[in-house]
Amino acid sequence: MTNPKRNPPAGGADGLGNTSLLGSIDGSKTTKSSYIAQAKIEMICDEIGWVVSPMISTLEAALAMRKAGNIPGFVYGLRCAGAYWRNIAANAKDLVALHQEGASQ
């Protein structure tokens, strides 16, 4: 049995040679940790995006409760929105750290 990494198909028979959409990838210029860091950055950005919408909805509901005179509901809505905000702030802090780590490499 042959190992495709050690014995690549002759003549680009794998179909990906230099004619692929990705082009030629030089693995010596990028490290595994940079791919992992980029994946983490994308995951954190996605999570922040998922949390922003419910936070906005919660704030709008809190304002509606305030307008209706429901002060306990208003305070509860603000506390819930605060929990969303703490999640966003923690993710933003991680995002900055990962970005600085990537810039230093």
Offer a concise description of the structure:
This protein is mainly α. It has helices at residues 32-67, 71-104.
Explain how this protein is built:
There is one protein chain. This protein has 105 residues and is an all-alpha fold. It has helices at 32-67, 71-104. The protein is rod-shaped and about 55 Å long.
Q: Span between N and C termini?
A: 38 Å
Q: State the shape.
A: rod-shaped
Order of helices and strands: HH
Compute the gyration radius: what is it?
24 Å
Determine the mean pLDDT.
77
Structural class call reads: mainly alpha
What's the story with the biggest beta sheet? none
- The number of helices is 2
Task: Identify low-pLDDT runs.
Answer: 1-5, 11-25
Which bin fits the share of residues in helices? 55-70%
What's the total count of β strands?
0
User: Strand portion, in percent?
Assistant: under 5%
Features:
single chain; 105 residues; mainly alpha; disordered N terminus
